[in-house]
Structure formats: structure tokens, C-alpha cells
Automatic annotation (TrEMBL):
Primary subcellular site in the record, as a coarse category: membrane
InterPro entries: BPD_transp_1_N, MetI-like, MetI-like_sf
Protein name, per record: ABC transporter permease
Species: Uliginosibacterium aquaticum
CDD domains per UniProt: TM_PBP2 (cd06261)
Protein keywords: Cell membrane, Membrane, Transmembrane, Transmembrane helix, Transport
Bilayer topology: Multi-pass membrane protein
Gene3D superfamilies, sorted: MetI-like
Similarity comment: family membership: Belongs to the binding-protein-dependent transport system permease family.
TM spans (from-to): 21-39, 113-134, 146-171, 211-231, 273-295, 315-338
Length: 346
């Protein structure tokens, strides 16, 4: 009977799960509807992108009808949702391939770039935030706050261009455009889509080194924004904890400053930091457009930019849907981690 009629706690969990699932569905539906209708009123003609400006009127009308643009907007959106429920995102005008195949091809490059960027941002931002909090109002705190302000406010494309000029053109430390030198392009068979992993699995260490040289600079520049954000939030969280009574008690007991800061105060901000890092990672995945453009990185951002300029709404809608799913998933993961690491939220 307990299986058919769950207990009160189980029923509440099921209800909560259903409520979250409903919110997710409504959020994604609203995101798709907004993107779809904005895309349809943009001054871009996808038909001309296909047939060209020299096509005659009959060819134009035929393609116009094939794309369903002669239907009312609500009917076009209904047809799109119908196809979406069957896993069909349509075909991209740019490549002629299925949008799902194009996204599966370009997205691993962005995952690789954003993952290294968030590792850089977290490994640098968290210690900087703790350092600033323990030196509140002093020179170290002011320096970290200036660094965070610059990383958060200076446009990332400016950092990208300056990085190319200094570290590639002048010093020669970094690789140029793309994921690997042209001499190594295509030497490694794509298994995971992550070039570093594929090169390591194939034992192509020269390709691996070339990929490291190419990805380090754009990843670090992309991670500057998340580093600044994580450092600021870490400082804020740590300042709140360092003013608590249990910290005073720990110091009175004679604990070292390292134990007070890292074993007591820092442990109590881990749950909050998990959410910050998760959301920062999602922002990197969908916000790599400018860096990928500057460094000619063949990833998700470049694909989305090209699709927007071409007026390819099938590709744009697929990209927007993926971005929405990423953010929703990361939010759900962060909520789950909250419950795992903080029993008070259960």
C-alpha cells in the first residue's frame, strides 16, 4: 500500500518535483515563444539567404511556401513545437544539416573552452576573495577590488585583442586563431569532440601541446569575468562569516588564522559558492560569443552569431533552447547540492 499511497514526505517531494518540472516547462516555452516571434519580425529575410538576391519571384515564392512563412505566426510556432516534440529542430540554412547535428558538432569546442575558463576563474577568484576579506580595508583588499572591477567591467573583446597583440604577435607565447595549428588540423579523429581529450587518447602529444597553446589565452580571458564575479562574491560571503560569533570563539580558543579562515569560515560559504560557480559556468557557455569571434574559435558562440546574421531562425531557436536547458539544469543541480551540503534546506 505504501507504493500506491506514498507517505506524507514522499508526497511532498513528488509534488515539489512536479511543481519544478512545470516551472521548467513554462520557462522554456516562454523563452522559445519570445525568441520565435522576435525572430519573425527581424528585418532579415531567410528566403533571400537561400535563393539569393538574383532569384526570380516564382523561386522566391516556392521557398517562402516551403519554409511555412505564408502561414500565420501562431501556426508557424505551433508547427515548430510539434516538430520539437518529435526531436526535430529543423535544418540550418548555413550548412543544410540538421540543427541538432550542427550543435552536436560545435558545442564540444565551447564546453572545452568554458570548462577551462571556469576552472581558471574559480581557482583564482576564490583565493583572491578570501584574501581580500581577511584584509578588509587594507592595501591587499583594495588591489583585489580594483582587479575585480576591471575584470567585470572592461569588455572581454578588448582583453581578447590585447591578448593576441601581446602574447601572440609580440611574445609568441600563445597560439593564434582556431583550436590548433593548421599543420595539425584534422590529424586527430574526433571521438568526444574535446580536442585535448581526443589528442591524448590518440597519443598525438604534439597536437595536444598545440591545442594547449591555442586554448590557454582565450580560456583565461574568458575566465576573467567569472574570476572577478567569483572573487567579489567570495569576499562578500567571507566578510559575513568572519563577523559571526563562532569565529570570535574560534580565535579565543587559540586556533591559527589558517584554521579559522579555511576550516571554519570558508566551509560555511561552500554551499553559496557552488551556486555562484554553477551560474557563472552557464554564463560562460552561452556568453563565449565575443571570445570565439576574436579568436576564430569554431564553437557554439560562432555558430549562433553566424546564424543570427543569416537570419537562420531554426539554428537560433535550437541554440536558445540549449542555453535555456543549460541554465535550468544548472539551477536544479545547484538546488540539489544545497540540500546535500546544507541539511537545513532539506
Amino acid at each position: 500500500m505504501s507504493i500506491l499511497f506514498p507517505s506524507g514526505r514522499s508526497a511532498r517531494r513528488l509534488t515539489g518535483f512536479g511543481h519544478r518540472l512545470g516551472i521548467v516547462a513554462v520557462t522554456l516555452l516562454g523563452l522559445l515563444a519570445m525568441t520565435f516571434f522576435i525572430g519573425r519580425v527581424m528585418p532579415l529575410d531567410p528566403v533571400l539567404s537561400i535563393v539569393g538576391s538574383d532569384a526570380d519571384q516564382s523561386t522566391y515564392d516556392q521557398v517562402f511556401h516551403q519554409l511555412g512563412l505564408d502561414q500565420p505566426l501562431y501556426m508557424q510556432f505551433a508547427y515548430y513545437l510539434r516538430d520539437l516534440l518529435h526531436g526535430d529542430l529543423g535544418r540550418a540554412l548555413l550548412s543544410g544539416n540538421a540543427v541538432t547535428a550542427d550543435i552536436a558538432r560545435v558545442f564540444p569546442a565551447t564546453i572545452e573552452l568554458a570548462t577551462i575558463a571556469i576552472l581558471f576563474g574559480t581557482c583564482v577568484g576564490v583565493p583572491l576573495g578570501v584574501f581580500a576579506a581577511t584584509r578588509k580595508g587594507r592595501l591587499g583588499d583594495q588591489v583585489v577590488r580594483v582587479i575585480s572591477l576591471c575584470g567585470y567591467s572592461v569588455p572581454v573583446f578588448w582583453f581578447g585583442m590585447m591578448g593576441l597583440i601581446i602574447f601572440y604577435a609580440w611574445l609568441g607565447w600563445a597560439g593564434g586563431a582556431g583550436r590548433v595549428d593548421l599543420a595539425y588540423d584534422g590529424l586527430v579523429q574526433s571521438r568526444t569532440g574535446l580536442l585535448l581529450i581526443d589528442a591524448a587518447l590518440a597519443g598525438e602529444w604534439e597536437v595536444f601541446q598545440s591545442a594547449i597553446r591555442h586554448i590557454t589565452l582565450p580560456a583565461c580571458i574568458l575566465g576573467l569575468h567569472s574570476m572577478a564575479y567569483i572573487a567579489r562574491m567570495t569576499r562578500s560571503f567571507m566578510l559575513n562569516q568572519l563577523n559571526q560569533e563562532y569565529i570570535i570563539t574560534a580565535r579565543v580558543k587559540g586556533l591559527s588564522e589558517f584554521e579559522v579562515v579555511w576550516r571554519h569560515a570558508f566551509r560555511n560559504i561552500l554551499v553559496q559558492l557552488l551556486t555562484i560557480v554553477a551560474l557563472a559556468y552557464g554564463s560562460l557557455l552561452e556568453g563565449a560569443v565575443l571570445i570565439e569571434t576574436v579568436f576564430a574559435w569554431p564553437g557554439f558562440g560562432s555558430y549562433l552569431t553566424s546564424s543570427l546574421l543569416l537570419g537562420d531562425m531554426n539554428a537560433v531557436m535550437g541554440c536558445v533552447l540549449l542555453i535555456g536547458i543549460i541554465f535550468v539544469t544548472l539551477n536544479l543541480v545547484a538546488d540539489a547540492l544545497y540540500q546535500v551540503f546544507d541539511p537545513r534546506t532539506r
